[in-house]
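Please, why this fold?
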Amino acid sequence: MSQHFETLQQHAGQEPDPTTGSRAVPIYQTTSFNFKNSEHGANLFALKEFGNIYTRIMNPTTDVFEKRVAALEGGVAGLATSSGQAAQFLALTNILQSGDNFVSSPFLYGGSFNQFKVSLKRFGIEARFAKDNNVENFESLIDEKTKAIYTETIGNPDFNIPDFDKLAELAKKHDLPLIVDNTFACAGYLFRPLEHGANVVVQAATKWIGGHGNSIGGVIVDGGNYNWGNGKYPMFSEPSEGYHGLVFNDVFGSKGPFGNIQFIIRARVEGLRDFGPAISPFNSFLLIQGLETLSLRVERHVQNTLALAQWLEEHPNVEKVNYPGLQSSPHYANAQKYLSKGAGAVLSFEVKGSKDNATKFVDNLKMISNLANVGDTKTLIIQPSITTHQQLSDEEQLSAGVTPGLLRVAVGIEHIDDIKADIEQAFEKVFPK
């Protein structure tokens, strides 16, 4: 019998420590691990056995975190990284090389947009941004060098929700993997992309998974449902230069003894090994702690976010509110179709008047924190045009849904009346009666 999300977030990937009987996951704060003998060490390095070598590549504390998130997302395996940016980078460079391209939604976190547009270009990898989330605008950018389709479950900061079923159909039509950043859907609690045709999920564990603003981390989940040996991806179907000719598709593909885990295995033993964005065991421990209360927190986050969105929509000093849980949102239909437990825990709104009004409003908040994060138990706010999306041109900002006076609010789990009260007193400073 498959267990429910609320049970998996407590138990998946862990058994009580066999040596000490510890029920809590121990923190294995070590760099490296003893081999049983020389043959054992050689087998581990040759990928003939699974086991621990070095914490840059794997760690028992991190292993529990990886298995638990994979179970929550419905995947076959996970790989933790030092940040969400690192997870995204490893997932893409695991299948893309110089001369390749991928097609992406334009509605992305500013850091993702810069990584795609600037940094990946230095590797010879082209990110092609669709005009919007309409499938035909993705398809028009696909050619023989396209190796993936990329989107976010809930776009940041305009909260666009793609039609996943149609996007998955497009990916299958062109035999391409669909990669989804599921950060805003909270490790599968609000939405599981792998159940709607996605092949790989990435996310920042820093956000709701950790949930308390105290640790940075990222995670990749392999759906085990794409044929990486189809000839488009020579790094899987041809001999590996780094492992004496090992063919990942032969050993770790669907016909191998372990099932189709080749994507995550290669991301670990080549990507994580060589680029090095390993998560610390202590951060993995903190993220595991976060997972154990994830569903409870997200329920309150979503409840507060909808209530705040409805209140702001009626506020005389607010020009516009963006939240897919509102019936006025152009993304409401897709939110109802795909996000049955709630439309996320972040909203944005535009303060009436100038860009300076929005800045003054933020500077007069007392309880709500002005900082660059989401997914904390505390309510957070930021002005994207001068922070997260500052490096983008004005045109790029507008195409991403960022207007000068837009404010993004990651709603916490405080009492909703106290959140409203802080916002109201800040409005009174900007618009004195």
The domain at 11-283 is CATH 3.40.640.10 (Aspartate Aminotransferase; domain 2). The radius of gyration is 22 Å. The chain has two domains: 11-283, 315-430. The chain has 16 helices and twelve strands.
